[in-house]
Write a structure and sequence with these properties.
By secondary structure, the chain is of the alpha+beta class. The protein contains 3 helices and 4 strands. The longest helix is centred in the N-terminal third of the chain and has 18 residues. The mean pLDDT is 97.
Length: 96
């Protein structure tokens, strides 16, 4: 299994909009492409959105990300989604 720890710094004043949009639109969209979202969190300062998603292995990451990022659904919302995010960090993780 490979997981991705994803940390997004959200533009000031947009966290409430982002969390609703992520839950209502982006999680179902990813699940449609077989991407499992394990959980979401907001830091105490309410400026970072942290989430984890998991894949079977490295090949699974490539296949599912290609499907998701190449989809018409994602391409129709990508600019709106990115308009909330000031900075993105992604760490790939494997269980020990």
């Amino acid at each position: 299994m490979i997981s991705q720890l994803r940390m997004y710094t959200i533009n000031k004043g947009m966290m409430d909009q982002w969390t609703k949009y992520f839950s209502d639109v982006l999680i179902p969209m990813q699940e449609k492409h077989g991407i499992k979202v394990d959980g979401t969190w907001v830091n105490e300062a309410k400026n970072q959105f942290i989430w984890i998603r998991s894949f079977a292995d490295a090949e699974d990451v490539k296949v599912k990300e290609a499907s998701f990022y190449g989809s018409s659904e994602w391409n129709s919302v990508v600019e709106h989604a990115r308009s909330h995010i000031a900075r993105t960090e992604v760490q790939a993780m494997e269980p020990v």
